[in-house]
Amino acid sequence: MQAQLVFYADNELLEGPIFDYGNSLLYFVSIFDGLVYCYEPSTKKILSVKLDSPVSNIYIKDKKNVLAASKNGFYEINFNTLQAKFTFQIEIDDNARFNDGIEDAVGRLLIGTMGYPEIIPNLGKVFSFYKGQYKIIIENTDISNGLAFSKDNSLLYFIDTPSKKVAKYSYDMNSGDVKFEDYIIEFKENGSPDGMCRDGDGNLWIAEWGGACLSLWNPSSGKKLKVLDLPCPNVTSCTFDDKGGLYVTTAKSDNQDNNFGGGLFYFENSNF
């Protein structure tokens, strides 16, 4: 299956795609440019708002209104007015920035951190923010990356990229606490796991940094089920749209085969 190039603006590192199913809008970020993008597939129109520090991920509020996490704080962005308003901050180390995040079923905002501008072993954490309060739920990570919930929300899957593994945690929806259970997937080839999303069957689509693909895994068996190839090595994350297709973000690389790395790609739904 061929990946379609949807958007390319010579960005270094696109990340954090998330689809607003109620309004058929896609959001994603360019981390180091501090740019938050809103893309409307029906019109191909794309809007952007620039923040003043690296931006990592997005939480949807309502139509063309999102919350974006940046190193300098969480900002509410209105794409109708193209205005950003500071909302709150989670205090992190000066030599860290935020990375991947996800919202749980009751509205908690989960978000990981990593060293910045250099990766620092064991500096990363995963925070949970709810009703104005935050706490640490996972510690001592290198690059806190992909987060996904099981279909019944009882499990949290988590990627610390350099480990080349996907961890499984039990998740208490009442308290927001987690408990490590096991490593369920291990990457043994060139690619390292980055961002991910879950499909309707409960399987995990995982972006492979250095692997030039998305790979599909069964979290119960730990087996790889399928691969979708991309034309650039560094694949960062993915999300489903309302037609069952997959949007995929990528990053630049020094590889000579880096065709449109830093672009946004799309796989049409053909049952993959």
Overview of this protein structure:
The chain has 272 residues and is mainly β. It has one domain: TolB, C-terminal domain (Neuraminidase). 0% of the residues lie in helices and 58% in strands. It is built from no helices and 24 strands. The chain has strands spanning 4-7, 14-20, 25-30, 35-40, 45-50, 55-62, 65-70, 73-78, 83-88, 96-103, 109-115, 124-130, 133-141, 144-149, 155-160, 165-171, 178-186, 192-198, 204-209, 213-218, 223-229, 234-240, 246-251, 264-267. The strands form 6 sheets. Strands 1-24-23-22 form a 4-stranded antiparallel sheet, with no helix packed on it. Strands 2-3-4-5 form a 4-stranded antiparallel sheet, with no helix packed on it. A 4-stranded antiparallel sheet has the order 6-7-8-9, with no helix packed on it. The radius of gyration is 17 Å and the shape is globular. The termini are close together. The mean pLDDT is 96.
